[in-house]
């Protein structure tokens, strides 16, 4: 069972003594730990070289004060004719073009179409066909720029989710969330970078490249919504649409010093996302949410994203709950465990400042709790990876199951086939007679797949030693040197991990689902309908590029709330000694998104919210 201890003035008030029994197979834990050690040995020297040899670049200075206004304020100024939508769009387009060479967040733009739509909005307002009150009620985001993560469909724009050819995909229609935002008057003007298949907490791929953190370009903005976070934080956009399967709306928000919200699963449509899955559990783990520089924009953004306006009214997202009516609970870390890091002292201090503020300003005594989360990372990883139709680079049909709404229907490969040959369509039989398969028939970029998959494929009877021309050592070397495949390392590592997870018994998985329910009920009982849980977004601030490959178990801080199906907001609460943003998560029970957003507003007021990233000084001229 999950252990809950409430600590008040150093004394345990409530708790269960027995330690929870570890349900994750020992072999899996040891394999994961061993893999982490290998990755650390391989990647750590590279990250150190990058940090010492790469110079930090600063952003161009802000030149237009419109870029410092919230979306809510911009919408008000536009509909009251104080400023034109076209002027606002031009300001954001100019800014995006200025900062993209430094940050590399842009996948594709729709600047020309966006300006046409802005002029149409200005024409509607000038016509007087609708009053200001009608415009606010019917088109609350009229004329406001909107950026969208590439994995979320925007008609006519790239929807590849960071993949390279031959997986090129242009969206035929808008995702439901984008459609709803357009109906509210928002104007999409850019789609932003995401890691391949959204399978990384580092935003990098072979198609667009690596996105940089605006506070230190040697560091990552996080992932998988790193393009959005970098753009919004740099005042290149004001609001954005993002997705979240394991913290993708929150880690980038923390690393880039803005606000990101993962809503209660089901209240916002997930149609039109690439990738997707058909597993019945998918919609419980996965959400589409929002990012903003200013907390006041999140309620409006989320409300406009919802298809069911009746539900939106019931959730009262735009009604802020006074913090005096909210109960607060918090933890400073989740262990640490053998694979997780302890929370950095500066993040612990930030949490304590929040707790102290609540006490001094509002007389609220936040209660420190100790919820045992020994298996939190493995719980999230195994349950997510075991879902059906999760995309993998080992899929026999590699573009299937990515998105039902965007991918054409194609036949499935037989169980005894692997999609690695040049002939016989997208796959060829490599069964009992596989030894007769000529080396020339095997695509070079797929040879490494045979090495990794053959040991776990029940119907794959070929020994790798019987494949002419395939040297396991050489293919593994090529795998690590990025020479023979079209994928970045993260989806490959995930696919390898999934192969191992698929071998875990159904009884063990069933026990993990039971544990998931226990953890969910622990939070339900603790928080009720008026409580929030404060928790670090990550145990450290933005790290250098690629360090996530051995720090990824720390994603348990984020994935915890995907497992428990809770709404959660990353809140900016200051910067560390190096000027890097610190964020904490505010989580609540299902359908209590309003509590998260209310606390976010309070913390922004208390701690200042977004801090402008460093910009270089404009050149001065002398007479």
Provide an overview of this structure:
This is Amidase domain-containing protein. The active site is at 149 (charge relay system), 224 (charge relay system), 248 (acyl-ester intermediate). With 623 residues, the chain is of the alpha+beta class. It folds into 2 domains: 53-378 and 518-607, Amidase signature (AS) enzymes, CATH 3.90.1300.10; 394-486, no CATH class. The protein contains 20 helices and 17 strands. The protein has helices at 26-53, 71-79, 85-103, 111-127, 132-138, 176-183, 226-233, 251-255, 282-285, 297-305, 309-315, 345-362, 376-385, 447-453, 472-480, 489-501, 506-527, 548-551, 556-563, 593-607; strands at residues 4-8, 11-14, 106-109, 145-149, 187-192, 204-205, 209-210, 239-244, 259-262, 287-292, 327-330, 367-371, 417-418, 428-429, 531-536, 568-575, 581-587. It has a 13-stranded mixed sheet with strand order 2-1-12-11-15-17-16-9-10-8-4-5-3, with helices on both faces. Strands 6-7 form a two-stranded antiparallel sheet. Strand 11, helix 12 and strand 12 form a beta-alpha-beta unit. Helix 3 (85-103) runs antiparallel to helix 4 (111-127) and helix 13 crosses helix 19 (556-563). The protein is globular and about 70 Å long.
């Amino acid at each position: 069972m999950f252990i809950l201890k409430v600590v008040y003035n150093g004394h345990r008030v409530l708790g269960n003594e027995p330690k929870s029994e570890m349900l994750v197979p020992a072999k899996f834990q040891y394999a994961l730990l061993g893999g982490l050690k290998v990755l650390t040995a391989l990647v750590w020297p590279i990250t150190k070289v990058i940090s010492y040899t790469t110079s930090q670049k600063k952003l161009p200075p802000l030149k237009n004060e419109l870029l410092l206004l919230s979306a809510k304020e911009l919408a008000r100024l536009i509909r009251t004719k104080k400023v034109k939508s076209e002027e606002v769009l031009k300001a954001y387009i100019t800014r995006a073009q200025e900062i993209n060479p430094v940050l590399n967040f842009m996948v594709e733009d729709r600047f020309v179409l966006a300006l046409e739509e802005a002029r149409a909005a200005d024409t509607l307002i000038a016509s007087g066909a609708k009053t200001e009150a009608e415009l606010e009620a019917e088109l609350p985001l009229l004329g406001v720029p909107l950026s969208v993560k590439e994995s979320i469909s925007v008609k006519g724009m790239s929807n590849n989710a960071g993949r390279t050819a031959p997986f090129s995909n242009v969206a035929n229609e808008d995702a439901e969330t984008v459609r709803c935002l357009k109906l509210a008057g928002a104007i999409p003007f850019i789609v932003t970078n995401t890691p391949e298949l959204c399978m990384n907490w580092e935003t990098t791929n072979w198609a667009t490249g690596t996105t940089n953190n605006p506070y230190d370009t040697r560091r990552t903005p996080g992932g998988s919504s790193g393009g959005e976070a970098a753009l919004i934080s740099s005042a290149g956009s004001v609001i954005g649409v993002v997705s979240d399967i394991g913290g993708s709306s929150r880690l980038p928000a923390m690393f880039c010093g803005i606000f990101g919200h993962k809503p209660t699963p089901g209240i916002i449509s997930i149609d039109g996302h690439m990738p997707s899955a058909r597993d019945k559990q998918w919609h419980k783990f996965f959400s589409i949410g929002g990012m903003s520089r200013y907390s006041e924009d999140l309620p409006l953004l989320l409300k406009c994203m919802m298809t069911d306006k009746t539900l939106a009214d019931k959730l009262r997202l735009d009604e802020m709950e006074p913090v005096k009516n909210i109960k607060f609970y918090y933890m400073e870390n989740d262990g640490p465990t053998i694979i997780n890091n302890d929370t950095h002292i500066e993040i612990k201090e930030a949490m304590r400042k929040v707790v102290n503020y609540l006490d001094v300003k509002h007389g609220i005594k936040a209660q420190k709790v100790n919820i045992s989360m020994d298996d939190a990372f493995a719980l999230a990883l195994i349950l997510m990876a075991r879902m059906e139709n999760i995309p993998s680079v080992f899929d026999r049909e590699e573009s299937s199951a990515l998105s039902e709404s965007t991918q054409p229907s194609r036949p499935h490969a037989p169980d005894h086939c692997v999609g690695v040959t040049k002939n016989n369509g997208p796959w060829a039989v490599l069964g009992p007679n596989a030894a007769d398969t000529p080396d020339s028939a095997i695509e070079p970029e797929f040879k490494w797949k045979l090495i990794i998959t053959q040991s776990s494929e029940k119907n794959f009877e070929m020994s790798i030693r019987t494949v002419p021309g395939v040297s396991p050592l050489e293919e593994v070397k090529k795998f690590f040197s990025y020479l023979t495949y079209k994928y970045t390392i993260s989806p490959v590592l995930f696919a390898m991990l999934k192969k191992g997870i698929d071998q875990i018994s159904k009884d063990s998985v069933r026990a993990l689902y039971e544990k998931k329910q226990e953890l969910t009920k622990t939070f339900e009982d603790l928080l009720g309908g008026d409580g929030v849980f404060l928790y670090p977004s990550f145990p450290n601030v933005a790290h250098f590029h690629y360090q996530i490959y051995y720090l990824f178990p720390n994603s348990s801080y984020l994935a915890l709330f995907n497992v428990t199906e809770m709404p959660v907001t990353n809140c900016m609460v200051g910067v560390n000694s190096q000027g890097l943003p610190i964020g904490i998560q505010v989580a609540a029970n299902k359908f209590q998104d309003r509590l998260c957003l209310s606390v976010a507003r309070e913390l922004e007021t208390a701690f200042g919210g977004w801090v402008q990233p460093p910009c270089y000084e404009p050149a001065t001229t002398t007479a």
